[in-house]
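Worked example 2:
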Amino acid sequence: MTAAGPPALDPASLQVLISRLTGVSEEMGAVLRRSAFSPNIKERADCSAALFTPDGELLVQAEHIPVHLGSMPASVRAAIASVGGGAEPGLQIVLNDPFAGGTHLNDITLVAPCLVDGVVAGWAANRAHHADVGGMAPGSIPPDATEIQQEGLRIPPLRLTPEVVSLLLAASRTPEEREGDLAAQVGANRVGVERMAALVRAGAPLREIVDYGERRMRAALAELPDGSWSFEDVLDSTGPRPDQQRPARVTVRLTIAGDEATFDFTGTDGQRPGNVNAVEAVTVSAVAFSLRAVTDPTIPANGGALRPVRVVAPLGTIVNARPPAAVGAGNVEVSQRVADVCLGALGQAAPGRVGAAGQGTMNNLILGGPGWVYYETIGGGQGGRPGRAGMNGVHTAMTNTGDTPTEALERTYPVRVRRYRLRRSSGGQGAAPGGDGIERELQVLEACTLSLITERRVSRPWGLAGGEPGAPGENWLLPGGNESRAERLPDKCTVQLGAGDAVRVLTPGGGGWGTPAADGAARK
C-alpha cells in the first residue's frame, strides 16, 4: 500500500479543521443524550456519533464508545450500498444487523447523507443502545440464546419510514421509550448534516484528514521494532448451560513490518452455541482501540489510521461468527477479551507503554417487568500502568459509558439501590497496583426478570511486569434481600425475581503492574 500524498493544508489549519469537525460529532452526541427518553442513553451515555467521507470512510468521531465507533464504518458502508446513488435530503437509513457491520441488535444505527448542491459530500451517523428490541427475554440479550432470531428484531439497512418505525415499536416491550430514543437519533443526525454541509461549502478538504491519519499511524508503527508477538487469554464461558461452562480461547499474533501491522486471530476457538460470539466488525473495533491507545492516542481516530493495519479473523470463530449465531454478548464481552489479547501482544512489542489488564468485562445487568426494561453495565478496576496505579471503579477498554446515577434509576424504575461502593483491595498488587472494582446491589420492588452477562468470574485480570492479577468478580442473589440466604449466581444466567429480592454484583479489580513492594503492601 502506498503512503498518503503530501498535505494540502498547513499543520495549524489542519488541526483547526479536525477540531471543528470533531466538535460537530460531539454536538451530535450532546443532542442525542439531551433528547433521549431512556436513562441508558440520557444518563449512561450508551451512544456514539461520527462523520464519514462520501465513500463511508471514518472522518472524525466524538470520544464516545470504542466498540461502537470502530465497527460503525462497516454499517455506514452497508447503508450506502443499500441506497446506491439514491440519496436525497432528509434520508435516514436505519439498521442494527450485526452481520452488516453492527454490534448486537440493541445497538441501532442511523445514517444520513450530507448533500451539497445535490452531491453527497459525506455522511453523519450515530449508534445508540436501545434497552429492548424484542427477543426471548427482556433486554434482548438473553444469555441462553443460541441463534440471533432469539435476541430480537434484526433490521437490515432500510430507509427509516413510519412503517419501519411501527415495526420496531411493535417488537419492543417498551415502545414509547424506543420511539423517543429513535427520534433523538434522527435529531442528532440532522444537526450533523447541517454543520458538515456548512464546512464543505466553505471549502474544507475532508480527504486531507484521513490522509493525515494514515501518515501519523504509519510513522507510529515505523517506530516499533519489526517482529511477531503472540498473546492469548480466555472467556470463562459461552452461556449458562453446563456444556457452555468451559473456557473459550482468544489468541492473536501481532506482526509489525516497517510501517504496517497485522493482527492474526488464527487459532481462536470456533463459534459456539450461545451468544458469546462476536462479528468481525467488533473485532476490528477492538484492534483499532488497542493500537491507537498504545502507539499514540493523539493520532486522529479516522479511517486513514487503519489503512496500514490488516486484521485476520477466521470466519466461523468467536471473533468472526457466521449467521445465524447469537451475538449479543460478542459486543460487550468478546470485544473486551480481544482488546486484552491485542494489548498483551502490543505490550511485548512496546514494553513500558502498556498497563496490566483492566476488569475485562462490562458486567451487564438487565431487569425487566411489565412495561419496563432496565439495562446497565457496571465499572470495575483499571490495570496498573507504568508509574501509575489503576483507577478505581471505572469503565475500561471497549466501553466508555457511566454507571446509572442512583436518583435517575430509582425515579424511573421500581428498583432501589441498596449498595454502591468501591470493592476495596480487589485490585492486584504491584509497584503500580490495579484499581478496585465496585460493589453494587439492587433490590427490585416488583416481580421481574433478571439477566446477567458477565466475565472474569473464574479467570482473573492479568498482572504485568511481575504485578499480581486482580480479583475475579462475583454475582449473588439475595432472596427477599436477606443476607443470610445469599446464593451464588453463575456468570451468565436468567432468573425470575420476586418483589423484595436483591442482586449483588462485585466487579473485578484490575491487574497490578510491576513487582510488588518487598513488604507486600504496595500502596494505592
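The two ends are 47 Å apart (CA to CA). Residues 356-524 form one domain.
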